[in-house]
């Protein structure tokens, strides 16, 4: 089986596409990742619908609304739980007698 793999590697290296997967693979990966990162950043800057200041303002407003809604939901839930607990068993902490 090793002779078959060696033969394939030999043919690929003669064609010019069968290089070893050493540092050249990592170099190509790093270059590709860098180009992708820069391209993505450039596209994000060109496609952004508003300036950075405006975007931060919108995010802050949305975060405040979410916090207010969450606080309201928590207070409603705790109020309903408190009401249920107060209407059920007004008894003291005594154990029932048998």
Q: Using only CA atoms, what is the Rg?
A: 33 Å
Order of helices and strands: HHH
Major sheet characteristics = none
Q: What is the approximate shape?
A: elongated
Instruction: Give the low-confidence spans.
Output: none
What is the total tally of β strands? 0
Summed over residues and divided by their number, the pLDDT gives a mean of 78
The helix content is: over 70%
Write a structural description.
The chain has a domain at 50-84. The protein has 98 residues and is mainly alpha-helical. The longest helix is centred in the last third of the chain and has 36 residues, at 52-87. The protein is built from 3 helices and no strands. The protein is 77% helix and 0% strand.
Task: Label this structure with key terms.
mainly alpha, single chain
Task: Please describe the topology of this protein.
Layout: H1 2-15, H2 23-47, H3 52-87
């Amino acid at each position: 089986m090793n002779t078959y793999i060696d033969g394939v590697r030999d043919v690929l290296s003669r064609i010019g596409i069968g290089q070893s997967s050493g540092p050249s693979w990592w170099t190509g990966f790093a270059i590709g990742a860098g180009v992708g990162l820069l391209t993505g950043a450039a596209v994000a800057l060109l496609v952004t619908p508003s300036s950075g200041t405006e975007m931060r303002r919108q995010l802050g407003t949305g975060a405040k609304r979410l916090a207010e809604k969450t606080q309201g939901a928590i207070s409603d839930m705790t109020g309903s739980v408190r009401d249920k607990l107060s209407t059920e068993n007004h008894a003291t902490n005594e154990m029932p007698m048998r």
